[in-house]
């Protein structure tokens, strides 16, 4: 089944990338995210989680830049993961004016604050650095529409988990999407704290 009910520009980009129809996991989760549901997306490597994140984000942001404050925040494990995901996004956004920015420890924090202040649409961040910037009032999350964690296995460590779960305390209305290969105790805790109505979308091997 081909992609349905997605933004025409995004559909065109998918075709250019040779992506003609969704994988089973993508088919199961994309419509739920598009409909506004918060989700836990559980699937093995190779199921298309990263592409699902990109499609969902671009669809939610209507493929266009808007104002200065970010509208999507994506947490990743480390610098390498941030830059890899940014590179994947850029494959899809070459003809769009969306502004994507990666935040990680191995860079000057003042420079990062200044770049964010100038205006970004999508922030890809490590929990530790994003938390520090947030508490220095270096990022405005008042316009945030999507809060995503990619490959959430790294949240098994207490420090990044604590940094991630603090952010929703300051958000009014936001849609959450947590992607992982398994649903574990950390996700149960997130479900208790800020994802009580989230749906679990799981596709096995």
From TrEMBL:
Highest taxon listed in the record's lineage: Bacteria
InterPro entries cross-referenced by the UniProt entry: DEAD/DEAH_box_helicase_dom, DEAD_box_RNA_helicase, Helicase_ATP-bd, P-loop_NTPase
Coiled coil (UniProt feature): none
Hydrolase found in the keyword field: yes
Keywords assigned: ATP-binding, Helicase, Hydrolase, Nucleotide-binding
Pfam families in UniProt: DEAD (PF00270)
Start and end residues of each Helicase ATP-binding domain: 30-201
Protein name according to UniProt: RAD3-like DEAD/DEAH box helicase
């Amino acid at each position: 089944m081909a992609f349905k009910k997605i933004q025409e520009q995004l559909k065109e980009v998918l075709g250019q990338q040779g992506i003609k129809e969704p994988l089973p996991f993508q088919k199961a989760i994309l419509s739920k995210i598009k409909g506004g549901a918060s989700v836990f997306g559980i699937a093995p490597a190779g199921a298309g989680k990263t592409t699902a994140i990109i499609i969902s984000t671009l669809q939610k942001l209507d493929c266009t830049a808007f104002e200065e404050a970010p509208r999507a925040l994506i947490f990743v494990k480390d610098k390498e993961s941030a830059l890899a995901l940014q590179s994947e996004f850029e494959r899809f956004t070459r003809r769009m004016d969306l502004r994507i920015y990666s935040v990680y420890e191995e860079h000057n924090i003042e420079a990062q604050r200044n770049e964010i202040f100038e205006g970004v649409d999508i922030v890809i961040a490590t929990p530790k650095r994003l938390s520090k910037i947030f508490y220095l009032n270096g990022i405005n999350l008042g316009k945030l529409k999507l809060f995503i964690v990619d490959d959430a296995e790294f949240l098994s460590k207490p420090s990044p988990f604590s940094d991630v779960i603090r952010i929703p305390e300051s958000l009014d209305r936001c849609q959450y999407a947590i992607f992982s290969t398994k649903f574990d105790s950390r996700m149960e805790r997130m479900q208790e704290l800020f994802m009580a109505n989230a749906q679990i979308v799981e596709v096995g091997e």
